[in-house]
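Let us walk through a complete example step by step. Step one is to write down the protein sequence. Step two is to encode the small molecule, zinc ion, as a SMILES string so that its atoms and bonds are unambiguous. Step three, shown after the inputs, is the structure prediction itself.
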Amino acid sequence: MNGLIDIGINLTHESYDRDRRAVIDRAISAGVTHMLVTGSSVVSTVESIKLVREYPDVMRCTAGVHPHHASELDAAQIDLLAGLCTVPEVLAVGECGLDYFRDLSPREAQRTAFRAQLHLARRLRKPVFLHQRDAHDDFVDVLREFPDIRGVAHCFTAGLDEARSYLDMDLYIGITGWICDERRGSHLRDVVRHIPADRLLIETDGPYLLPRDLRPRPDGRRNEPMYLPHILTVIAAARSETVENLAAATTRNAQTLFGWPSGA
Ligand SMILES: [Zn+2]
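Step three: the predicted structure of the complex.
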């Protein structure tokens, strides 16, 4: 596999409804040859699987329930999700985790949904796609109950201490265009220097987190997977590493963690 893999792209988001095919074509032309579509609820997971099946050479997806939707995850939904996780196009469980920043689901419900999905991942021997915001201590406590779990802390935006605690748990770290934000992301340029090359993954998290330093500035605020090479360039510069080396390493890491079928 020669191109880049966007390991976090919400391609079923409605903001792509009018031109999804063009978005995908632009990404591929920019060298983003593979995308891991994020499933963040049962409904969006079903939609993701459908989309991925239209692009079998390009896409795979995750199957999970974001902490915002945690209170929807009752026993029936868990059964549904378990079934979706066994679909061959699904390479990881998630996104799952804890989000105490927005608290859209009660915290207890978030922890319950998180544990349920970690159990699922363990049972199915799949990696997890993890989301955490303002909930680091509880997040680490829950994860420690699952010492054998493999996964990625997606959209990492915190400091070195949090990064180290994830690396100590053998997690991968996903870096987005947040690092391009000179106001709130500049600390990440130091953090990424401390992430071993075999632990780093790259993602756009589109349509969110449009890199702020794109020139010329795109119209609108929607992020697209075609901007992944820009994010890669910023990370490579911060690490004093060549773009080529970092591209190869991050693609290899994505293949290793998610078991991306070679030839796909
Ligand atoms: Zn997330």
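Step four is interpretation. Residues 95, 131, 154-155 surround zinc ion (CB under 6 Å).
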